[in-house]
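QA checklist item 7 of 12: single-chain prediction sanity check.
[x] sequence parsed
[x] length recorded as 489
[x] structure emitted
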Amino acid sequence: MAYLLEDCKNNYKFDITIVNQIQNEFGEGNYEEFELEYDILWDDVLLKTITTESSNENRKLAGAGPVDYNEGKLLYMFIRTRKPQNVLEIGFASGVSSSIIALALEKNGSGKLYTGDLNSNPDHEYIIPLFKKFIKKGIINPTYPIDGVVFVEEFDTNIPIDLTFSDASHEPEFCAHLARSLYEKYPDALHLYHEWSFSPRSSEEAKKYISLKENLKHQAFAEREAFEEMFPKDDYHHYGFYGSCGLGVVKKRQSKKEMKVYYRLSNLEAGISKKKIPNATKKHCLENCIKEFGDKNIVIVGDRLNKETKDYVNSLNLRLVEVDNGSGAGTFRDALDLAIKENTSDDYVYLLEDDFLHLPGSAKLLKEGVDRFGMYTTLYDHPDKYLNADKGGNPQIQMNSEVTRLAKTDSVHWKLTNSTVMSFATRVDRLKDDYELLKKYSNGRITDSYGFFSELIQTKQLGVVSSVPGYSTHCEAAWLTPLVNWEEV
């Protein structure tokens, strides 16, 4: 059910998920100071003017037009913390987001907002008074009527743009052209856009905060796809914040995107006795991982390591996070929590056990898989998919084969499979969205990977992709990836 704008503040202000998102971005100190400033604006000016003077006939509903309380607060905080000198806004409509940006610039002591719109103008009956006030002050410089893409392409190249905000047409062709123009003209700017949550790529958690959920069924919102496809993921962070529509962020990376490995290392044996191939020693598997993924990209989650193992890890200059739980499932939970805590939602992580081997090129292939599918991704071609259930294989296997779909990336083919072990790569937002399920199936001494993926497929129609052929293996002798002599790796 849709909710009212007047309820947004109470809905969001004390929501722990919302609070954590903002504090992780801006820090607790900035959060409290700038939230207080923004709350005065929202309570004394914005809420009343949006609900009485904004352009949409459903103006009292969150998500029916302008930014809501949380989305507006985020805009305000980005301006206050980054202190841009020149902001470009595509689509000012009734002037709500423009006024938020302008007030933040005024508080900063300098800066200008250049904004354009095709269907609105400062004399429009729905323009809020604050917008006109900031025009008179010289902080807002509007252009109208003008198409959003044309506005960007024809904007003065002598004015360096530090930050952009897009809230115009949602149509795929427009969004694609807009994203391309912004990427080509302002590759170093911070780019923000409205309607981030209205996307097939959005998590179920993000969609829970959408106010007008019926819009998911009958209206196309192409902003997120356009920005994520135009701005290369290796060079840009892509993530967003929850709200009645959601606020998307495109931020240039300081360094190239890499797969970050959370390597679960223990001196203890797993809860189930496993006969492994001779070269599957702790040392050899770790050194193989370093060779393929690089020592800078590996975090050791060490469970009850003895002194010899700790000294060895430290000699390799690897980061070591020590834990104490004594079970494979417990160490998985530790790695899961650490991966979520330390990374942004669009980062790629690989949760890995300490008895895996990889072939050359594995890091590149894992990135290709996550890039292409956005699902749980593995290079382990589990042989239980080629063995009938009554012979000890996967419960869904008949005729020693799995019914699947096949796709390809630049370097390898991939099959959709019903399960893998609890060593996989994915995006952090995928882990966040499935967090409760992941916890559910790792609450004993050993993880239940088949149970996890079975419920994931049933409830979310989301599974796992596996490379064909396999480029990694779990080193239990009975269950090696086929067609490779792993004892020579």
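[x] summary fact logged: The chain has two domains: 5-252, 271-294+351-488.
[ ] second reviewer sign-off
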